[in-house]
Amino acid sequence: MKPKKSCRYLFWVALWLVLFLLSAASFYLLHEFDNKYTTKGPQPKSGILMLEENTLAQYPVLFLVSDWEIYRDRLLTPEDFAENPPLPDELVFIGQYGGLEGRLKENASPRSPHGSATYRLNIALPAEGRSYTLELPEIYSAYKLYINGILMKEIGSPDPGSYRAETGIASVTVQAAVRMEILIAVSDYSHFYSGMVYPPAFGEPSAVAGLMNQRLILRTLVCAVSLCIGFLYLLLGVFSSAGRKKDPRSPLPFLYASLCLAFTLYICYPVVKTLSQGGLRLYHAEAFAYCAMLLLILWIQDKLTGIDRRWTGISAAFGVFTCAIALVFPLLMGNSLNLMTAYSRLIGVYTWACAIYLTAGAAWSLYRRKTYSKLMLTGMAVFDAALVMDRIYPLFEPIRFGWFTELAGGVLVLCIGIAMAFEIAGQLRLQQAMEARAKSVTKMLEVQRAYYPILLEKEQEARAARHDLRHHIIMLRELLENGDMTKLKAYLEAYSDKRILTVSMSYCRHYVTDMLLRMYAGLAAEQDIPFRVEAKLPETLSVDDVDLCVVLSNLLENALEASALIPAHQRNILVRIGCKHGWLVLLIENEFDGQVKTENGHFFSRKQKNREGIGLASVGIVASRYGGNVHFYPEGNTFYSEVFLPEQQNIQNTKEAKS
Is 118 in a helix, a strand, or coil? Predict the structure, then answer.
């Protein structure tokens, strides 16, 4: 590795590391200050939360994390605690387990997390009666809530005989004094998680309601913005020519619109569960949306940065397979714990595989100086940090904002959106330049179309004049030999009144092509550039005159500009045009200085830094519109331009296929 490349590589590694550490620091701050598990305030001890008179004034919202009594395999009611109350199996903190499995005894077989259990917590309140609000996140997957012996809430049906899974984010406000008993009887037979896995919130009604509203508004706003941006890109893809041309990057607006939809579906479940309660299919949709989001990011990055198709195919195949599993597996696995575990592990492997592939792809793109690679590397540094911090701090549940992967996914989607905005802006600039060029070409064709018959007439006159020149010379010689100066003078004056037009040769019968070749041959002659033409075309072509003019004029202008940058003795332009096997073929060779900047098959302008050359891009757009092909490539100091456009029957078949 060369020293300069080595230093550049180390710089990029250091840059990624800095971004990673900054992101990790941001997630650490979220863990410390937006986490139900680290928030300040008293916690229950031995199944009892002691509240002083001013506790809620200092801590308006408390998150009930620690020391909940749990009674496994029992759906208890308040009456069961009236006389001879049962003893709890264990005191647990919410989030200690992923389900109802609890602490495993020595030499005991693993216990299934599915089944039933009852959670119980007592709160010692001030003597004066007042209102309190209890907010319950999703409890998997059906439960009954009792407060002070009264059934306050029921979501789904936890009774094993009539089990019905439903979840929702709910809140209950009660009037209480001295003591409050919270009893939650829950059953689960159908989800990865079971029981209480997210800490409830308890406190002043206005404070709890305000917190829930803040969370709902923030989440709804993000979802709405994501959907609006996705819809905007969908419209751009439908109505812009950039979305219709046959280009490797043409599906990008549609892919990004799909990415916005997948991201919205991935993060919208708290909004839906707050506004309504229902079954578990939304969680299945969430898992599928998460897998689809990563797959779409893979596709978009590969198209933006031009990663090798072999790696693209492998990653896409794995992504499609995982998305298919995420879509159908929840419907087929039933209540099998082993299948649920395998499915969960597959999602984990897929997440880390995508993160490694995307990070490596962004680093490779930056090393190769690909466009948009810096934005992709920035987004991946944030996403990688989110995955690592999620492992370092497993006990994290956001109070107001999102989970680590949700926030990082949003940043990554935003980075891709910025790259997409630059890409589409470049396509719009190209389209505007093409439209302006087409207008000028149309005007030029109108003038030339009117002038061309006159030009042909003058050429015929010139040919006749040249034919008569021999007779004039004979007459002049005779007058000169006879010494008749008076007649000689009169004859010369009469001959000088006739205009003999000298025109360049005609290259072909198609007047637009012939006119352009004459014009650029004249420009080449002015710049001492050898200009050779081999053209054989009929009088009429199926290709529109304006489109043909755009193609030929752009190619010849590029050839002239490239030739002007090299010494005169090296200059040479060869133009070959003809119809062969139903195709209009244009082949142009020109010498140049050997300096060319390409990326993903696109040639960048030397006049405007980091912008795609308008001329060759315009030729490609015209060719794709007709279903043709273009090939541009340098070999040494010779640049080759090849354009193939369907002619006659071929173009008709192409149009019928498109319609």
Answer: strand
